[in-house]
């Protein structure tokens, strides 16, 4: 099963099998561009005022969202499990995490400070991160959240399926098969009114759990859209039709969570 490549991997096999360019991209560009050393945390996004100048970018926001930190743990675990564990435990000791409720806070806004609201999407990624190191604990958290009604936001069905696949593969597969599918992902992307990079990459991650071939096809199709900058190896936040509805374009904003999702997906592909 493809998911086991991420959650049942040893430190040695991860370093041996990971495609080298993933590590290089993480160390040579993603960390220098997105990591805030003053906060010891990932920032949300960067942007390119001139797309032709590949070496010139600006930090668009210094907000440190919990989702970005947790996706960072999952990406780091693909090649350095020990550092991922240390980072995860450090996050739990900071204001990203609420030890009294056992839930993750939303994160820190660069101007408004810490936001301690509890969002279900943040908890979903928290469960995946917990499962890297303690599946039993992750399952208990997941079961508790199934009946907890005071969380903000909506669940992403694809993330629930990925989580359930860790504990109940048959149930997860049944739910996965009920999701809408497309036989022509590139056509789907180019004809849509708008496309969120994060939503599409999470969908591809769910595909990779049960059908790596479909996941690969969707991933390669997404790379053919303006969402992906093949020269930099970076993903942009979203794309939509222009005012005339003639062409898809992507604003020059790159979010760190999309870069992490890409690393996780490509790592899983390298293992199956």
Task: Please describe what this structure looks like.
- This protein is of the alpha+beta class and about 270 residues long.
- Helix content is about 55%, strand content about 15%.
- It has helices spanning about 5, 10-15, 20-35, 65-75, 80-90, 120-135, 135-145, 155-165, 170-175, 185-190, 195-210, 210-225, 255-270, and strands spanning about 35, 40, 45, 60, 65, 95-100, 105, 105-110, 115, 195, 230, 235, 240, 250, 255.
- It has a three-stranded antiparallel β-sheet. The chain has a three-stranded antiparallel β-sheet with strand order 5-8-9.
- Strand 6 and strand 7 (about 105) form a beta hairpin.
- Helix 8 packs antiparallel against helix 9 and helix 11 (about 195-210) packs antiparallel against helix 12 (about 210-225).
- The radius of gyration is 18 Å and the shape is globular.
- The relative contact order is 0.15.
- Residues about 10-15 have low confidence and may be disordered.
Number of helices: 13
Low-confidence regions = 10-16
Q: Which structural class fits the helix and strand makeup?
A: alpha+beta
Number of strands: 15
Radius of gyration: 18 Å
> What is the mean predicted local confidence, pLDDT?
86
Strand order of the largest sheet: 4-3-15
**Terminal Cα span:** 8 Å
Largest sheet data = 3 strands, antiparallel
User: Beta-strand level of the residues, as a percent range?
Assistant: 5-15%
Helix content: 40-55%
> Could you state the oligomeric state of the chains shown?
single chain
Structural shape: globular
């Amino acid at each position: 099963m493809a998911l086991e490549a991420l959650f049942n991997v040893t430190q040695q096999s991860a370093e041996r099998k990971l495609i080298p360019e993933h590590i290089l991209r993480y160390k040579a560009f993603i960390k220098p561009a997105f990591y805030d050393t003053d906060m010891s945390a990932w920032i949300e996004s960067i942007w390119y005022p001139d797309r032709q100048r590949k070496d010139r970018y600006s930090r668009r926001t210094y907000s440190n969202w919990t989702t970005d930190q947790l996706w960072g743990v999952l990406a780091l675990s693909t090649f350095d499990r020990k550092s991922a564990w240390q980072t995860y435990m450090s996050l739990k000791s900071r204001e990203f995490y609420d030890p009294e409720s056992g839930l993750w806070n939303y994160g820190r806004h660069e101007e408004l400070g810490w936001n301690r609201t509890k969002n279900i999407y943040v908890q979903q990624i928290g469960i995946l991160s917990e499962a890297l190191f303690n599946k039993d604990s992750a399952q208990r958290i997941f079961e508790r959240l199934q009946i907890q009604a005071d969380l903000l936001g909506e669940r992403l069905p694809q993330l629930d399926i990925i989580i359930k696949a860790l504990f109940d593969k048959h149930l997860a597969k049944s739910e996965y098969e009920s999701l809408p599918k497309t036989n022509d992902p590139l056509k789907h992307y180019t004809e849509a009114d708008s496309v969120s990079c994060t939503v599409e990459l999470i969908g591809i991650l769910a595909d990779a759990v049960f059908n790596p071939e479909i996941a690969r096809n969707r991933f390669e199709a997404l790379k053919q859209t303006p969402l992906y900058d093949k020269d930099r190896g970076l993903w942009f936040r979203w794309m939509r039709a222009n005012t005339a509805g003639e062409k898809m374009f992507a604003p020059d904003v790159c979010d760190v969570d999309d870069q992490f999702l890409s690393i996780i997906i490509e790592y899983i592909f390298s293992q199956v």
